[in-house]
Amino acid sequence: MKTRIAVATVNGRAYYEFVNELQRKGLPFLSLKPWDPIPMNIQVVLTTEKESNQISHSNILLFEQGSKPKFVVDKANLIIQGKKSYERIVIGVDPGKTYGMALLGDNKVLETLTASNIEEVTLLILDSLKRFPAEVRLVRVGDGLPEHTETLLIALDKTLPADTFIEIVSEAKTSQLVNKSVNRRVLRDAVSAIKIAERNGRVFSRRDIS
User: Fold this and answer.
1) Which domains does the chain carry?
2) Which of 61, 6, 79, 10 is closest to 37 using CA atoms?
3) CB-CB contact of 1 with 28 (8 Å)
4) 200-209, pLDDT tens digit by residue?
5) What ranges in the chain are assigned the alpha helix state H?
6) Which region holds residue 60: left if phi is over 0, alpha if psi is between -120 and 50, else beta?
7) What are φ and ψ of residue 51, in 5° steps?
8) Rounded-to-integer distance, Cα 171 and Cα 95, Å
9) Is the pLDDT of residue 179 over 60?
């Protein structure tokens, strides 16, 4: 993947927050000082408001004290893809003792997460839907453990916005493929969630909340 994002700051806090989020998402970046020349291949620059007047670039995104850097990095990721928003956001969830979660934007994996309980995974899903603008928003839930799946579906139906679709996805053969290639539980949950997000499921009929 070509480097299209630059972090141009000497502010230690801002640099740490940006780099931590970029590395978590696997996005390559270039570290610069605010006064350094910006290479032609860089499409977006991350910096602070105080340092922004030293930077000459058409796409500058700012770190603000108390803000969440993941929102800035999410926007940078959209810019380098040439998008203003995604056509379709799909969230795959692998329910169990721990919950694996994968977020796909227009069929591209944006991030994977894990949660320890239904409340946590529900909040993560809501947060992800707020962070990523999209014309279509879909949550796909694996059916591998029926008791966990049913409880999660009820929670999501009560909590998610009315325009968010929910599907139940068969996990048949998925876990076998994952277990052969991945040993660590966190990675297994993440890979399973990706596979669930990529599969078509049957529509879950949501309650009438109009």
Assistant:
1) 5-80 (3.40.50), 86-203 (3.30.420.140)
2) 6
3) yes
4) 999 999 876 5
5) 12-24, 69-80, 118-131, 146-159, 174-181, 185-198
6) beta
7) -95, -10
8) 11
9) no
